[in-house]
Amino acid sequence: MMQGGLHPDLPMSWYTDMLRSIKDRHPEFYLHCFSPTEVHAFTSVTGLSTAEVLGQLKEAGLDSIPGGGGEILVDAIRKRRRSSWGADEWLEVSATAHELGIPTTATMMIGLGEENWMRAEHLKRVRDVQDQTGGFISFIPWTFQPDNTPLGKKITERVPPHEYSRWLAVSRIFLDNIDNLQVSWLTVGLEEGRLGLQRGANDLGSVMIEENVISVAGANHQATETLLRNTIEEAGFQPGLRNAGYRRLKDRPIPSPQGVTPHE
Question: SS3 breakdown of the chain: % helix, strand, coil, rounded to 5?
C-alpha cells in the first residue's frame, strides 16, 4: 500500500513508471496505491479524465485503491475542512475505478465536528455506490487525530472509545453489502481493536512498515504481527493472512526470537 501527497508538477509517467518498476522486480506484489484524492489530483495535473488516469495506472500494474480522503461524505463538513473537492467527486472516482475492474476500499473519519445524521449519510452514500458497482472490498472507520494539524486547533477532543465502537457496529449492520469491516487499531489502539472484532469487524488491518500522516497527528499505536495475532486470538477468533485485495493467503507460524515457533 502506498499513498502520498498531492504533488503539483510530477507527470503521470512518474507514477506509472514506478508501478511498472515494482511489478517488474516483484511480480508477486499486490499494489494497493493512490487514494481517490490522489487520482483526482492526477486529473488536475495531466488534464486527463478520471477513467484515463485510472486506465493508465491499471495498465502499469495497479491492483486496487485505498479509500483515503473520504472523511465525511457531506459537503458542509468538507467545506469546513477547506477540502478542494466534494463528496460527489470522491464517490465518482471510486465508482469509475469499480467500472474499470479496480476494487477499492472506503473509509469514514469521525470526529470532525459532524452530527450523527452526517455519519449516517456517509454510510448511505457508500452503500448506494456499492449497490451499483459492488467494487468496495472493505470499509474502514477511524477517528480524527487532532495533534499537529490546523483543524486540531479547533477540535481538540478525541472521539471516545465507546462512540467509535458504536459506529463500528452500526457500519457492520448498515453496510451488509460490503464483505469486510476493518477496525482501526492504528487510531484506537489494540484493546479497542480486540473489542471491535467482537462488535462486527472481521479485519484488524496490518503491520505498518512506515506511516507519516496520522502518526504525526497523534496516533502512536504500534503493533507487530505477533501482537496482532495475539489480539485476534484473545478476541476468540483465528488469525489468518490476507493481501491488500482481501484475498486469503496461506498462513504460516511466526518464529520466536529464539527460532522456536509458538506451537513448539
Answer: 40, 10, 50
- Domain check: are 118 and 50 in the same one? no
10 Å Cβ neighbour count for 76? 11
CA distance 81 to 132: 29
Q: What are the pLDDT digits (tens) for 12-41?
A: 999 999 999 999 999 999 999 999 999 999
Chain center to CA of 200: 17
* Amino acid at position 162, single letter: H
The string of DSSP letters for 188-256 reads H-HHHHHHHHTTT--B-----S---STTTTT------HHHHHHHHHHTT-----B-TT--B----PPPP
Q: pLDDT by residue (tens digit) across 55-111? A: 999 999 999 999 999 999 999 988 876 666 899 999 999 999 999 999 999 999 999
Residue 35's domain comprises: 1-66
Nearest to 213 by CA among 41, 58, 3, 48: 3
Q: Do the beta carbons of residue 33 and residue 66 sit within 8 Å?
A: yes
**3-state class of 147 per DSSP?**
coil
Q: State the DSSP H helix or E strand holding residue 75, giving kind and residue range, or none if neither.
A: helix 75-80
Contact at 8 Å (CB) between 39 and 93?
yes
Q: Collapsing DSSP states into helix, strand and coil, what is residue 108?
A: strand
Residues 3 and 58 in one domain: yes
Identity of residue 41: A
